[in-house]
Amino acid sequence: MYIFVLKIYQMYKGTITKKLECLIHLIYWVLIFYFTFVKNPISAHFFTPDLFLWTYFIVFVLTFYFHYLIVMKKVFKAFNWKRLFAGVFVSYLVFTFLRFLSEQVITKILFDKVNYTDINFLNYMLDNMQYSSMTIILSSFLWFVIYSIRLLEYNQIILEENKNTEIKFLKAQINPHFVFNTLNNIYSMVYFQSDKSLTAIDKLSQIMRFTTYESQKEKIRLSDEVDYIKAYIKLEELRHQENVVVDLKLELENEFEEIPPYILSPLVENALKHGAVSNTKPIEIDLKVLSGKLTFKVKNTIGTQKKDSLGGIGLDNLQKRLEIHYPEKHQLKITKEENHFRAELEIDLK
């Protein structure tokens, strides 16, 4: 749950805009300047910095924002303690390098002065560990304050969003017209004693079972979603009493990979609903799951029937659910080329 909320946080910035964040930084630096350089605020007595205090302050600022903008963002993109300690260590090395460069090289060239006249490597590294700690702590503290505000704010937003999305999702799990038409078709099959009636009942049972039970889960096995798609295709064939020509290609390295329900099937439903299908113009469906990457492509010829949004849960709802479950780890492309409709979905499952 923590990782899920963390991913959502990375998508939304809430009321703390970039301008407000810059203002917070400005106030933060005013406070640091005040407690560093003001000795007596009543008499306006300021501490006069020397050359190496200025160089330290420059290194302080550079390391502060290196840690704030790069390290903390990388660490919390996929948080674990090893990444945190590694990030802190990298910031320490950056601080040490910048300090050596500025106080032992640049000042030597410009002012013929160095801060350390006799450098012992171990002592120098330990000394900079002490000096860099304040930079890293203050940078981490500010990042955590802004992060916590955004996270707390979005916790409330995501609860409301999930509730609204769930309502839309449950309402649109299956098209009632599809069920009614299928039942009428099954009735006709039974009445005329068609040998396809039992198959149609079985496929409708699979679909209703999936809709009733599997769709309530946060994640299901990939094979379950594929079985649902196959049942839907077969039922369409039986319902229309003709072959709904579908070229289904599967290359699943791990069929037990877990995905949210109804992530793939809406694209298939849309193709079956709006596609012009024949032996020469099949619906092309290609699903690959290799090395933790899911690639799903659906292509169909556009029919003459009335177009609307994606069947099932709808395109907007699908995109919203993809953003919630796979923020910055998915890509959905919908293209129309002449009389062809193509949907391509890529998801990084790692």
From TrEMBL:
Residues 166-243 form the Signal transduction histidine kinase internal region domain. The keyword Glycosyltransferase does not apply. One of its GO terms (molecular function) is phosphorelay sensor kinase activity. The chain crosses the membrane at residues 20-39, 51-71, 83-101, 131-149. Coiled coil: none annotated. Keywords: Kinase, Membrane, Transferase, Transmembrane, Transmembrane helix. GO terms for cellular component: membrane. This is Histidine kinase.
